[in-house]
Amino acid sequence: MRRSLVVGNWKMMGSRAGVTKLLEELKGYLVASDRASIAICPPYVFLPQVSEDLRESGLRWGSQNLSQYDEGAFTGEVSASMLKDFGCDYTIVGHSERRSLFGEGDADVAAKFVAAQSARLTPILCVGESLQQRDSGDALEWVKQQIIAVVDVAGIDAFADAVVAYEPIWAIGTGKTATPEQAQQVHAHIRGVIASLHPGVADSLRILYGGSVKADNASELFANPDIDGALVGGASLIAADFAAICRAAE
Ligand code: PGA
């Protein structure tokens, strides 16, 4: 039985005062549960505050990105070991906004995945197709190639300590959600790709859905056998909505 995971991706949103309020509200709504893990990924600068405020809460946290390098003259970068130092358990790698807006390619994503694991952070590897790729029938092959690009560098065993998030680009921040059937089809495909290389790893791999997950569509997504939780953007900034999504995953 895979334990569900719900991760809030705050993106580049928030302020000190706003984060203080949101964390208070989240702690009010959410208690640690045996059935689902819950984590938030704030902007880097809020990690000290998050790590203090959530220390006793049972909620976990991570980053939205990391450097592929360990240490050195890399202005503006943050390393995996720094994130670990602030208590991060997770880091998102290869989010489509990083890929499309900041030019991260498969090689960068794979290097970040490896860097995360070397500091014992669990990478949440994002994959997903554009609308054009979906319309031309290329979605499954595209997603497979994104996974294989990381397997080729990190090895299949590395997926025993990783999470995959399927995030169709056309559904991110658009209010358009993949139907449960569309999402389940791609999730089953991802699990199949991993299973063809290592069935045991595929069985335990958590595959999250991301793309306009809301309080009112979470349950029908989570009802599918290969959807093990969610990576939530916009709705993770509203404590009551995020809590409702987390409860749906329990
Ligand atoms: P969204 O974002 O829930 O706002 O669509 C999801 C994501 O980018 O992870």
TrEMBL record:
<dbReference type="Pfam" id="PF00121">
    <property type="entry name" value="TIM"/>
</dbReference>
<feature type="active site" description="Proton acceptor">
    <location>
        <position position="167"/>
    </location>
</feature>
<dbReference type="GO" id="GO:0046166">
    <property type="term" value="P:glyceraldehyde-3-phosphate biosynthetic process"/>
</dbReference>
<feature type="active site" description="Electrophile">
    <location>
        <position position="95"/>
    </location>
</feature>
<feature type="binding site">
    <location>
        <begin position="233"/>
        <end position="234"/>
    </location>
    <ligand>
        <name>substrate</name>
    </ligand>
</feature>
<keyword id="KW-0324">Glycolysis</keyword>
<keyword id="KW-0413">Isomerase</keyword>
<feature type="binding site">
    <location>
        <begin position="9"/>
        <end position="11"/>
    </location>
    <ligand>
        <name>substrate</name>
    </ligand>
</feature>
<comment type="pathway">
    <text>Carbohydrate degradation; glycolysis; D-glyceraldehyde 3-phosphate from glycerone phosphate: step 1/1.</text>
</comment>
<dbReference type="InterPro" id="IPR013785">
    <property type="entry name" value="Aldolase_TIM"/>
</dbReference>
<comment type="pathway">
    <text>Carbohydrate biosynthesis; gluconeogenesis.</text>
</comment>
<keyword id="KW-0963">Cytoplasm</keyword>
<keyword id="KW-0312">Gluconeogenesis</keyword>
<protein>
    <recommendedName>
        <fullName>Triosephosphate isomerase</fullName>
        <ecNumber>5.3.1.1</ecNumber>
    </recommendedName>
</protein>
<comment type="function">
    <text>Involved in the gluconeogenesis. Catalyzes stereospecifically the conversion of dihydroxyacetone phosphate (DHAP) to D-glyceraldehyde-3-phosphate (G3P).</text>
</comment>
<dbReference type="GO" id="GO:0019563">
    <property type="term" value="P:glycerol catabolic process"/>
</dbReference>
<dbReference type="GO" id="GO:0004807">
    <property type="term" value="F:triose-phosphate isomerase activity"/>
</dbReference>
<dbReference type="InterPro" id="IPR022896">
    <property type="entry name" value="TrioseP_Isoase_bac/euk"/>
</dbReference>
<feature type="binding site">
    <location>
        <position position="173"/>
    </location>
    <ligand>
        <name>substrate</name>
    </ligand>
</feature>
<dbReference type="GO" id="GO:0006094">
    <property type="term" value="P:gluconeogenesis"/>
</dbReference>
<dbReference type="InterPro" id="IPR020861">
    <property type="entry name" value="Triosephosphate_isomerase_AS"/>
</dbReference>
<comment type="similarity">
    <text>Belongs to the triosephosphate isomerase family.</text>
</comment>
<dbReference type="InterPro" id="IPR000652">
    <property type="entry name" value="Triosephosphate_isomerase"/>
</dbReference>
<comment type="subunit">
    <text>Homodimer.</text>
</comment>
<dbReference type="InterPro" id="IPR035990">
    <property type="entry name" value="TIM_sf"/>
</dbReference>
<feature type="binding site">
    <location>
        <position position="212"/>
    </location>
    <ligand>
        <name>substrate</name>
    </ligand>
</feature>
<dbReference type="GO" id="GO:0006096">
    <property type="term" value="P:glycolytic process"/>
</dbReference>
<dbReference type="GO" id="GO:0005829">
    <property type="term" value="C:cytosol"/>
</dbReference>
